[in-house]
Amino acid sequence: MPELPEVETVARTLRPQVQDCRLGAAQVLRSSSLHPLSLPLERLAGARVAAVGRRGKLLLLDLDPSAAVDTALRAATGLRLAIHLRMTGRVRTVEAACPPGPYTRCVFALRTPVGEARQLFFDDVRAFGLVLAATPDILARWSFWRDLGPEPLDLKAADFAALLRGRGSALKAVLLDQKVLAGVGNIYADESLFAAGLDPRRKADTLRTAFKTCCCAPLPSAAAPSAITATPTATWARFRIALPFMVGAGRPACAVVAPCKSCAWPVAPRSVARTASVE
Predict the structure, then answer these.
(1) What is the pLDDT of residues 31-62, one digit of tens each?
(2) Phi, psi dihedral angles at 231 (to 5 degrees)
(3) CB of 44 within 8 A of CB of 23?
(4) Contact (CB, 8 A) for 132 and 37
(5) Closest-CA residue to 40 (of 131, 145, 121, 105)
(6) CA distance 152 to 213
């Protein structure tokens, strides 16, 4: 599943392609890809893409509906199109004449600031992803959004220590809990714990404050957008993982038995918090 850095890269790649574009006609080609709380996507016609960003693992398009075809929507504030990529979701812009592919789930017509007609596709092979057009009131009703924890890149060590207090689960399980930290997934939880020299199976509430600080310190470098690279003009970000615990580009150490890149100690797969890890 794409984690914080991957979704951040998608946002940065998509931003110059869609910012200030106006949405046109929308099609939902697979009904289950539209979140049940979502506004009908056709109501977004005429709205301008004001910004492209991210919250945790969610891709966000902030919309300005002041010129929306639906006059009832024009006064809305905080209107957003949220896209949860899940396992295989991808968002790309294509030419206006490009037909949807076999895994295209949602389609938006786009009009660029210079008047060029294009399309925005949401493709999803495994169809786990979701698209949600929402006002702040709707987002507040979505438990996943409402319960998201703080962003790890903005977290201070003292605040992180407070988050771990009283939590008896394994450290890795706590890092993966989106209610504790938004956006951290399997790879970056492993990287952070490896950099801190902490066993992912250790109970979070057994750490002294110094170790909690030690655990927090690697999070910005492990989960930062600079940890991956992407072709800036690509319609779909291509990732190259550049972290010390990886045995090969884009291949986690927990996928194979191989020497650690840092110390050459043989690492073997094991399950921690129902995810692949190593020992």
Answers:
(1) 999 999 999 999 999 999 999 999 999 999 99
(2) -70, 115
(3) yes
(4) yes
(5) 131
(6) 13
Residues near 262 by beta carbon (within 8 Å), at least 6 away in sequence: 194, 244, 245
Taking residues 193-212, what's their average pLDDT? 79
Q: Which of 190, 201, 178 is nearest to 55 (CA)?
A: 178
- β-pairing, 246-248 with 22-28? unpaired
Do residues 105 and 127 touch, judged by C-beta distance below 8 A?
yes
**pTM for this model (two decimals):** 0.83
Digit-coded pLDDT (tens) for 139-149: 999 999 999 99
On whether the CB atoms of residues 46 and 63 are closer than 8 A, the answer is no
Taking the CA atoms of residue 134, residue 137, residue 143 and residue 148 in that order, the dihedral angle to the nearest 10 degrees is 80
pLDDT tens-digit readout, 156-168: 888 888 888 899 9
Q: What is the DSSP letter of 140?
A: H
Question: Tokens 């790879």 identify what position?
Answer: 187
